[in-house]
Request: fold
Amino acid sequence: MMKGIKGFIIKRLIQSVITLYILLTVLFFMFRVLPGDPTTMFVDAALPQEAREAVLKQFGLDKPLLEQYWIYLSNFIQGEFGISFTSREPVVDVISDYLAATILLMGFTIGFALIIGIIGGALTAWFRGTKFEAAVVSIALFFRSAPIFWIGMVALAFFSYNLSWFPTGGMHVPGQQFENFFDKYMTLEFLHHLTLPVLVGAAYYVASPLLIMRNSMISIMEEDFIEMSRAKGLKERYILFKHAVRNALLPVVTEVALLVGFAIGGQVLLEVVFNWPGIGRLIVDSIQRNDYPVAQATFFLMGVIVVFLNLLSDILYGYLDPRVTYKKS
Reply:
């Protein structure tokens, strides 16, 4: 166990809690600073009077603003996100229907981007100065500089509408009913619908891990142990993957948390373009329908994911790099 790691984790946990508290506060006041009566944004005017009063009472909207704020914090801390104005279901149940679809899409997208980025970054550094390096870096930068919704639309036009290789959107063929999680997500039909949005997302996000890995590899290749390995007569492939790649991975670990946070923002556009029923589309739909309990909960959930991954990245970095020490300030 590294010296000072316990104090570091406690400090980072406190910082994470403060960050989430600030996020909750911003979400609360964000809708109330808009022009007009805040209750008109939180409560659908089409609701029956009794239901409207019940919603107002549940969220404490009939109370002074400061009291509303404390009730809002208390509800969120207890995991009570309220009732959706449109579906009349608990917000937790509404989000859970969309969360699995987003996690699968984002997980495969980021995982695929990291695998291609790490391998591509290692190879471009190893073959530095060649046409291979120039071609790979140029392609990665091209996709990174283009808007993700444009890449998605071009991919749909070419691979779906022109070649008919992939579905034009959605997660399944419309009209199907599913009995359980495995029937819904563990099928070849689901993977077929998942493939094109994953490829588009991976093409857009691959540049960051690829360039970071490439720069890290270039530094590692100048180390003495690489020259020593060559002097021992080890094969180039063995030196590349056994020694160089392994030591160059540390900066990529930090990049994972940043990439996830960045990907969450882009996930909204990706899901809209491919008509993917995930959290990103849920945010857009809930804002368009003035379903603010759902919008607040989804914003908060995305913030929790980013904060947690940043915390995990900081802790893992200390374990992976023995040179890192934690000193008391």
